Amino acid sequence: MASLTIRKLDDAVKTYLRLRSARNRRSVEEEVRVILRDLIEGRGEPPTPFSAPPASSSGPAPQRTGALPEASITLIIGGGIAAYKSLDLIRRLKERRIEVRCVLTKAAQQFVTPMAASALSHERVYTDLFDPQSEFDAGHIRLARDCDLIVVAPATADLMAKMANGHADDLASAILLATNRKILLAPAMNPLMWNNAATRRNVAQLQRDGAVLIGPNSGEMAEAGEAGIGRMSEAIEIANAAEKLLRPPVPRPLAGKRVLITAGPTHEPIDPVRYIANRSSGKQGFAIAAAAQAAGAEVVLVSGPVDLDDPAGVTVKHVESARQMLEQVQTALPADIAIFAAAVADWRVANEGEQKLKKTSAGMPPLQLVENPDILATISKLVEKRPPLVIGFAAETEHLIDNAKTKLARKGCDWIVANDVSPATGVMGGDRNTVHLISKNAENNNEITVDSWPVMTKEQVAIELVAHIVKSVTKKSPEPAS
Ligand code: C5P
Fold this sequence. Notes:
The chain is α/β, with parallel strands linked by helices. The chain has 2 domains: 69-246, Rossmann fold (3-Layer(aba) Sandwich), CATH 3.40.50.1950; 258-348 and 368-476, Rossmann fold, CATH 3.40.50. Helices cover 34% and strands 21% of the residues. It is built from 16 helices and 21 strands. The protein has helices spanning 11-23, 28-40, 83-95, 114-121, 132-135, 139-145, 157-164, 171-178, 191-195, 197-208, 235-246, 283-294, 322-332, 375-380, 400-411, 458-476; strands at residues 71-77, 98-104, 149-155, 182-187, 212-213, 217-220, 227-231, 258-263, 268-269, 275-276, 298-303, 315-318, 337-340, 347-349, 369-371, 389-396, 415-420, 432-433, 435-441, 447-452, 456-457. Helix 1 (11-23) crosses helix 2 (28-40) and helix 12 crosses helix 16. The longest helix has 19 residues, at 458-476. Bound molecules: cytidine-5'-monophosphate (C5P).
């Protein structure tokens, strides 16, 4: 008989099932069974329309209340007086948009009732390995795997002993043996039991097997006059530990760094309707902005006219001409890192027409060109406000490395990303790039090194460049010794 994994369904279907099962106070699996049975028997509730939340939004963080669950936990409640705290734990987890399905051991039911756990979790509670209702399709396997994490709270000495030795004679131990998910244990027991050599051995074995422990804390025991290590962690501590395992903090190596990036072409006006431009798409600069933002940097992107969406979380200044670009770059300083990926026009029209130029019998109107400011060279040569790391690009159609090395010296920047833009490469406007990173090593007599990268997408080039930046920045400012 085939089995259906709810987690693998489309988000829209999952959302529908979750809303419907919550409304009907059934588990999602039971709801699916009801839907199938109704369908076969010719009944059937028409799907309720709903709108799923947008995948990403730059607006304010979604409110937790009423938002959809984002993760799910199988919570195994063991038999100990601390089990009362697990009821609070269910609420703390649900506040964090975590779906909770509870399993109560036989001993747990001496302390808390399945009904209380069910009312708080809004899900059916599981207690029996041989429950015909859920075991007809190996329910313990689903409980073990259709979740993102298993939490055992309280983890009693007996439950941990069974787990350490691979027992599976009840629902809780069978789930713990059958799971391929991370397990978080919140031990709770009398201090003498916690310190017993057998428990010490079991805990060490479980940790070797990959289980994570939270607590136990030290304090008074339920037994009158006894104190020591063995109190179960508070619900909030367990919920925090579970959330950390479910949603590990994303590394943000450029946090606190300000990165300034130029991208795209510039448009240099000839008259109010015509301009001089180039074929730059801005894709590489935009990809770098997104990668730096993902690494935690505060990013200002100064972009010429492009057909791209602003990267999320990045401050974008839209400009047209080279002079406007320079102005915005200067306004955005100071920065820790400046990356000049724009294809700035070298020349602009000095005698820009105030009105649309007319065709005359005298032939083509004379266009006088004057040199544009070199933004990269201007910023590289600043004294006080020079960003500590300045990176330029060299788009060349011949003698790539030699020209790029000359450019590095002429512009006064620290690194040059050189790329071959001859038409055959398809780099201009395309999605892939073959680059060479040419860097000047200030610590080694300004020695020039050339690092040639394989052909990559522009996003991969961006990620690789940001990784090099992270390495260089962290080398210059080592972590303070703790
Ligand atoms: O001189 P060239 O245009 O080849 O130099 C390319 C590098 O210089 C790129 O990093 C580009 O963004 C930057 N540049 C600039 N201002 C200019 C010309 C180029 O910032 N006017």
